[in-house]
Write a structure and sequence with these properties.
Radius of gyration: 22 Å
Protein name: TRAP transporter large permease protein
GO molecular function: transmembrane transporter activity
Largest sheet: none
Subunit structure: The complex comprises the extracytoplasmic solute receptor protein and the two transmembrane proteins.
Subcellular location: Cell inner membrane
Strand content: under 5%
Membrane topology: Multi-pass membrane protein
Distance between the termini: 45 Å
Order of helices and strands: HHHHHHHHHHHHHHHHHHHHHH
Structural class: mainly alpha
Helix content: over 70%
Length: 434
């Protein structure tokens, strides 16, 4: 077999193994190792490339952002900041049709800015928001759909684990990726709120809900006590990066320290929960490092096979336009999103298309935002919509089925697709802050 044939077969084998239940980095690493061995007929070369990939990943200074932001997100969750922000948002939107849904989106957007995890957002707001919406006669599908749709903001609004993974694969600055995600993340949250207003106005049956008696507004002091800690934390992290006072690693360290101080001041942190957060941080960090290491040897294998260059020559030979290439890319991500998780999609697809994007003189930072938003749509689509599974497993309500969660999330997946098209057409939306 030619190197190109081996490269194509290896990509298909990786997708097959992941879909069969093999751990993602094991599938990437083993298939890449065997492919290099077959292409060069040299076991020692394959072994040396594996050692280089491990060394390069572990010694990367910017990798320190992963444990720092992960720890910060875990501490923030334990401090109860998500619930506080939700209560303030609910008060502000209470008189609007679908107002609790809008409050959920707004609270999720703020929560995303201090956690960076879609899974954490889905878990927290399933417990906080869904029971309240059900109690006020909202359509159960709408209730779970809002939580599922807004949970993906955690992977777009920085700090985001997926943006960090992309930055390693594409060799881009983590700080630049974080700044690039701010406007698209806020834009998606605003469009979600507009979509909920539209559904409440024109499809009230899908939204449901009843008018509740007016309650007293929170005092300014109470609002401040619930929002200022989160605002302060966001200002330290993103403000430090944006002004250039802090690197991404330093911002992660400062954010983790501030989150710990907030949790201690609120007396929500015990030694036991602190130790649990440290252990979870270690587990998550080790898993992501394993992923990045596997992606590194996978990229080397693709380069050795010449597959990216072959793909570039094929599209150039057919004189494919920019929109044709982007349409193929988005369709590929949407298809893989029905089978794989976001990290898998990034690790498999990005190394294939990076040389083509560079040849077209397109921004790799912009391409990263397109990649993450496109891949995140997969969190809402069957059969492997991870956010939907998390919501179902977190719910303590057997009357709401997994099908209800997927059907409720469908309108929000469509909204994400529309936002993705706008981001492709107007790259400045992703690059304005850099």
């Amino acid at each position: 077999m030619s190197p190109i044939e081996i490269g194509l077969i290896s990509v298909a084998a990786i997708v097959f193994l992941i879909y069969s239940g093999v751990y993602i980095p094991i599938a990437l690493g083993v298939v890449s190792f065997i492919s290099i061995w077959l292409m060069r007929d040299n076991f020692t070369l394959a072994l040396n490339l594996l050692k280089v990939a491990v060394g390069d990943s572990a010694m990367e200074y910017s990798f320190a952002t992963i444990p720092l932001f992960t720890f910060m997100g875990l501490i923030v969750s334990k401090a109860g900041l998500g619930r506080d922000i939700y209560e303030v948002m609910t008060m502000r939107f209470r008189r609007v049709k679908g107002g609790i849904g809008m409050a959920t989106v707004g609270a999720n957007a703020v929560f995303a800015a201090v956690t960076g995890s879609s899974i954490a957002s889905a878990s927290v707001f399933t417990k906080v928001s869904v029971p309240q919406m059900i109690a006020q006669d909202y359509n159960p599908r709408f209730a779970v759909g809002v939580v599922a749709g807004s949970s993906v903001l955690g992977m777009i609004i920085p700090p985001s684990a997926m943006l960090i993974i992309y930055s390693f694969v594409a060799e881009q600055s983590v700080g630049d990726m974080f700044l690039a995600g701010v406007i698209p993340g806020i834009m998606l949250a605003v469009v979600y709120i507009a979509a909920i207003w539209f559904m409440g106005r024109f499809t009230p049956g899908f939204v449901g809900g009843r008018r509740v008696a007016d309650t007293e507004w929170m005092s300014g002091r109470e609002v401040a006590s619930k929002t200022l800690p989160t605002v302060f934390l966001i200002t330290i992290v993103l403000g430090g990066i944006y002004t250039g006072w802090l690197t991404a690693v330093e911002a992660g360290a400062a954010g983790a320290l501030v989150a710990l101080i907030i949790a201690a001041a609120r007396r929500t942190m015990t030694l036991r929960s602190f130790w649990t957060a440290l252990l979870e941080t270690g587990h998550i960090t080790a898993a992501i490092l394993f992923l990045i290491t596997a992606a590194s040897i996978y990229s080397r294998m693709l380069g050795m096979a010449g597959l990216p260059n072959q793909l570039q020559d094929m599209l150039a030979g057919n004189q494919a336009s920019f929109w044709t290439i982007m349409a193929l890319y988005v369709l590929l991500m949407l298809f893989l999103g029905t089978l794989l998780d976001t990290a898998s999609i990034i690790l498999i697809v990005v190394p294939l298309f990076l040389p083509l994007v560079e040849a077209l003189d397109l921004s790799l930072v912009w391409f990263g935002i397109i990649t993450v938003v496109g891949a995140e749509i997969g969190l809402l689509t069957p059969p492997l919509g991870i956010s939907c599974f998390v919501i179902k497993s977190t719910l303590n309500d057997d009357s709401i089925s997994l099908k209800d969660v997927f059907m409720g999330a469908l309108p929000f997946a469509f909204v994400m697709l529309l936002v993705l098209i706008v981001l492709i057409e107007f790259p400045i939306l992703s690059l304005a802050l850099i």
